[in-house]
């Protein structure tokens, strides 16, 4: 793994030197885009709009368009914008993880302690485990400010979850949300029973990306000159639910519900 950030966690008056590594990798197939006419590979080039010539990465700079004029930014400008956040994630507060709604969660990263930071790293991980709290603070990652939430993972490593800012969450008031009408007591009781019957301890290993596996099988079949049998997707049932109680009862009697209990 390659580190994407090198700095320190600010924990009170203690600085813990760390490196940040991406904790995830995609399971999607890497598909190329081709020209339908002759299956030639589609290439994307960075082209100068005036000369029409391709520009190399090392000759590309970033700029902000202000009043019809570009203001070019240098590496030093990003650091100058917030020097203390470019290399330090200072924990501003400790909160209960349950208080952080999942809508704010973005990407997870692993934190690796650097030389002379091992003891403080273990101390913070143990203290967070004992108190069942998480540390929250801000830092600069890839030229933009981010909220970071630090928590123990498997009691072996600290994980940094990047969080969204509150202003990034869209307003849902324009959506057609059902009116705040209380459900029928019998239906609610049945729904709660169904939830309890399907309740299990969460095991992420039960869920796998089977779609990519199935797609790869089709790719291998086509490579051998075989044509995959097309299966139509099941149509989505639409319209008004006539008897919700009957559907709930049927759900409780289904094999899947019985096996979960």
Indicate the mean pLDDT: 85
Shape: extended
Helix content bin: 25-40%
Question: Which spans of ≥5 residues are poorly predicted at pLDDT below 50?
Answer: none
Alpha-carbon distance between the two ends: 41 Å
Order of helices and strands: EEEEHHEEHEEEHHHH
Radius of gyration: 26 Å
Put simply, the count of helices is: 7
Strand content: 25-35%
Largest beta sheet, briefly?
7 strands, mixed, barrel
Q: Please tally the β strands and state the result.
A: 9
Q: What is the spatial order of strands in the main beta sheet?
A: 1-2-6-9-8-7-5
- What structural category characterises the helix and strand content? alpha+beta
Folded structure, characterized:
With 261 residues, the protein is α+β, with helices and mostly antiparallel strands. The chain is built from 7 helices and 9 strands. The strands form 2 sheets. Strands 1-2-6-9-8-7-5 form a 7-stranded mixed beta barrel. The chain has a two-stranded antiparallel sheet with strand order 3-4. A hairpin with a 2-residue loop joins strand 7 and strand 8 (144-153). Helix 4 (185-197) runs parallel beside helix 6.
């Amino acid at each position: 793994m390659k580190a994407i950030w090198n700095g320190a966690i600010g924990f009170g008056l203690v600085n813990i030197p760390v490196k940040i590594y991406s904790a995830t990798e995609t399971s999607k197939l890497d598909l190329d885009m081709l020209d339908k006419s002759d299956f030639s590979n589609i290439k994307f080039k960075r082209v100068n709009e005036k000369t029409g010539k391709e520009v190399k990465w090392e000759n590309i700079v970033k700029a902000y368009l202000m009043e019809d004029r570009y203001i070019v930014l240098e590496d030093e400008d990003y650091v100058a914008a917030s020097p203390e956040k470019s290399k330090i994630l200072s924990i501003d507060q400790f909160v209960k993880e349950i208080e952080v709604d999942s809508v704010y969660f973005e990407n997870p990263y692993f934190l690796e302690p650097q030389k002379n930071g091992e003891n403080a790293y273990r101390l913070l991980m143990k203290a967070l485990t004992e108190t069942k709290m998480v540390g929250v603070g801000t830092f600069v990652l890839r030229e933009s400010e981010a909220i970071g939430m630090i928590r123990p993972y498997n009691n072996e490593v600290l994980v940094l979850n990047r969080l969204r800012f509150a202003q990034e969450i869209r307003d849902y008031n324009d959506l057609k949300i059902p009116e705040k009408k209380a459900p029928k007591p019998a239906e609610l009781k049945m729904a709660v029973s169904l939830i309890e019957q399907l309740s299990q301890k969460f095991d992420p290993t039960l869920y796998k990306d089977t779609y990519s596996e199935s797609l790869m099988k089709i790719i291998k079949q086509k490579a051998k000159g075989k044509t995959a049998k097309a299966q139509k997707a099941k149509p989505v049932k639409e319209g008004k639910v006539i008897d919700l109680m009957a559907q709930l009862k049927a759900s409780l009697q289904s094999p899947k519900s019985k096996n979960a209990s």
